Amino acid sequence: MRVSQRGRAILRRLSAHDAGQTFRPGDFLLTSSGEGMAWLLGVATASRINHAAVIIDERGTIIEANPSFLSDGRAFRVSSVQRYLDAGKPCWIGYVEVREGSRQEVAGYALHLLRAKGSVSVSGRLWQAAHTIFSTAPRSYLARLRGPAALRDFLERRSLVMRENLCYSSGELVARALERGGFIWEYDPALITPADIFHRYCQPELVLAPQSAKGARVASKSLVAARAKPGVTPLAPYTPGQDRERAMASSTLTTSQAADSGWQALLGIGVATAVGLACIGFLEELWRSTGRKA
After folding, report:
1. 177 falls within a domain
2. Domain count within the chain
3. Mean pLDDT of the chain
4. Is 183 helix (H, G, I), strand (E, B) or coil?
5. Helix (H) or strand (E) segment spanning residue 63
6. Backbone angles phi, psi at 182, to 5 degrees
7. Domain that holds residue 95
8. Which of 112, 155, 160, 290 has the most Cβ atoms closer than 10 angstroms to its Cβ?
9. More confident: 195 or 242
């Protein structure tokens, strides 16, 4: 997933020592939640980072899409970064670069959704779960398993969005709020997940330093000693045409691996679809039985 240079962010993980720091409105939080909708999103994306929220003040107050499934009827709710830190959850703060003067617009949009969409119906939760199972999961499995390119392109260009009006997932909430600050996404924000945002902005923690001249001399001496040491196999001499043979063998292996990955992707989609249909059928039957008793 590519994002234009108008919307950039740097991710940094918070520790218990950073609990008292000052936050900035318009930044975002990526974390993990065990509640129903967040858990389902984590399964669909195979990622521990399954929840996101928008920071709205310096104290770390956040507005989040409600991650619960049926226990809480609110579409959005107010929480804090400290709550997730106290629960021992991984907390990544996205420090964003937005247009000048637009931080309050990002936070204000999240506040607007909190006031505009007070509650969400059971059918709204079911539509959101269906979107996660039938739209998010296949795209995620195909991208991770490197499935057939034609099928990946088909799913990217013909996205399927199933939800009630203004009933957003946590990733979509953050993506749409950041649009107010100048972020331009390649895909529909409804298709963006917390895992997508994490992989887009997470920087590698270890950067290999360039090898010094001293290190190069040590490596050279080690190679010379290895050649002189008995029982160590020397490097094979170069033979013309050897690179082409290796390339052909590597190409054959890559083609075989791609075919295996394609079958694995299709199998994953089939399993996800079957599980989704079973879950939706069970919930509908439970809802009907509850209605009859009432």
Report:
1. yes
2. 1
3. 77
4. coil
5. strand 61-65
6. 105, 0
7. 8-120+164-201
8. 155
9. 195
